[in-house]
């Protein structure tokens, strides 16, 4: 008898109850799925917001510097 042809099924990695509990949580309605994890708000809201704010600041600073002639090479 070989080891590959075992008649016993392999035990699952997680219990079925835990899987069903996670599925119920992620399929519920109140929040969108991409915001349900622990750190999802950081990656989907905070980082893009920080990038947008910093880019607007640098664009505004560049326009101000150009209009006032600051940093011009002669």
TrEMBL record:
Pfam families, alphabetized: COX7a (PF02238)
Keywords in UniProt for this one? Membrane, Mitochondrion, Mitochondrion inner membrane, Transmembrane, Transmembrane helix
Q: Which InterPro entries match?
A: COX7a
Name the predominant localization.
mitochondrion
For this record, an example GO cellular component is: mitochondrial inner membrane
Kindly list the places in or outside the cell where this protein is found, as annotated in its UniProt entry. Mitochondrion inner membrane
Q: State which residue ranges cross the membrane.
A: 41-64
Q: Which PANTHER family match?
A: CYTOCHROME C OXIDASE SUBUNIT 7 (PTHR35308), OS05G0457000 PROTEIN (PTHR35308:SF11)
**Protein name as catalogued:** Uncharacterized protein
């Amino acid at each position: 008898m070989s080891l590959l042809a075992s008649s016993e099924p392999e035990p699952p990695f997680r219990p079925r109850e835990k899987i069903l509990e996670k599925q119920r949580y992620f399929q519920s309605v109140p929040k969108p799925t991409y915001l349900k994890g622990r750190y999802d708000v950081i990656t989907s809201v905070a980082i893009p917001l920080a990038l947008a704010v910093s880019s607007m600041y640098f664009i505004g600073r560049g326009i101000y510097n150009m209009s006032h002639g600051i940093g011009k090479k002669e």
